[in-house]
Amino acid sequence: MRLVIINANILNELGEQELSQITIEDGVIAKVEKAGQLGQENAEAGTQVIDAGGRLVTPGFIDMHVHLREPGFEHKETIETGSRSAAQGGFTTIACMPNTRPVTDNPDTVRFVLQKAEEAGLVNVLPYAAITKSELGRELTDFAALKDAGAIGFTDDGVGVQSAQMMKDAMRQAASLGMPVIAHCEDNSLVEGAPVAEGIFARKHGLKGIPNESEAIHVGRDILLAEATGVHYHVCHVSTEQSIRLIRQAKQIGINVTAEVCPHHLILSEEDIPGLDANWKMNPPLRSRRDVEACIAALEDGTLDIVVTDHAPHSEEEKAKGMQQAPFGIVGFETAFPLLYTKFVATGRWSLAMLVQRMTAGPARVFGLEAGRLEPGTPADLTIVDLNVERTVDPCVFASKGRNTPFTGWKLKGWPVATIVKGKLIWNDAIELAH
Ligand SMILES: NC(=O)N[C@@H](CC(=O)O)C(=O)O
Ligand SMILES: [Zn+2]
Ligand SMILES: [Zn+2]
């Protein structure tokens, strides 16, 4: 089976757009050639042709931090609806967190997630497994068995591992298996029921505030433990200037640490929260403008390696409980690229190549995935993006079951229009199919 994408603008080594033609055979990239006209050899019967119409074609986006909610919270999202939402956001590979019910702390649940993802037949789904049983922080899971079942790393995302000894044991074990530890960094003793960050908004509304140190204390502790154990330590959703300072220093002295940041922590500060609307409540919380600037600079200089969405769907009833009671989390797949393109690339602060790198080759390198590059011999996971079309964010058209976003009504440019996984067009919004 051959698929040819013509009139594809791809980013060359210089980061410039170059009109190209991509030939895919049996789900694998076979050729990437300059010029966009359909060659004679491809005109033969049996070749499917997609005319990208001069739109940008990138390696499929990779999101290494998402919540698919199945098993256990299917009213929030399922592996199928989450995969569809990912595809609609241009993502072709996603790594899902284990804070399901049951928690993905046993090989059967890892296999269940993989099975459901295969049945959905959409994006590549990579499951993480929990560090501790039920994410309670008391007893380590069976790392070797979880790895054998297909888990790609260990994390208790949703909560921080409170005990340093537990974290050190986890890192030792993960290191011996060549697996990464992915950490949600949060010291509970400093948080205690606060729904938003310390700052102007919390004071104005008489709410308890989450201090920056609650994150950075774990980052600092874990960097020392990573140094001692030699594990690959990856920091989840970094949101503070202090964490960044620690990660930057750790990288300088050669400790094996990597880190991610979410679009909302690059764009919104606590001062932007319009009122007591829980669609602005997420963990980590929106911090100060100073923290936002530190996150942007750190993604630019490589201290923060990659962008992830932390796609965290919740039902409308749950989010209607108000700022104090509602669960933390916002959806992210379907707005991630347009948000970052509009805010940072269209404004001239970042190159398009930088943004694409942080969402493709970057995550592939950090997690050792065979993805993220438009090279012959690699799986044909591709995203077609229309950089010119402008649309208003409308949660009603999300493929996700979650509608919980603070970006409703934002006018954004740079929308993904088609997603290809292993040579199969799994989502298409705008491309005319020729034969
Ligand atoms: N980020 C969030 O605000 N919520 C996540 C948990 C998490 O990522 O820590 C969730 O599972 O809802
Ligand atoms: Zn988390
Ligand atoms: Zn998360």
From TrEMBL:
- Give the encoding gene's name: pyrC
Q: Specify the species.
A: Paenibacillus mellifer
**Could you tell me the keywords of this UniProt record?**
Hydrolase, Metal-binding, Pyrimidine biosynthesis, Zinc
GO biological process per UniProt: 'de novo' UMP biosynthetic process; purine nucleobase catabolic process
Entry's family note: Belongs to the metallo-dependent hydrolases superfamily. DHOase family. Class I DHOase subfamily.
Q: Provide the E.C. number(s) assigned to this enzyme.
A: 3.5.2.3
Q: Does the keyword Mitochondrion apply?
A: no
Main function: Catalyzes the reversible cyclization of carbamoyl aspartate to dihydroorotate.
The molecule here is called Dihydroorotase
Give residues annotated as binding substrate: H67, L68, R69, N99, N283, H314, F328, G329
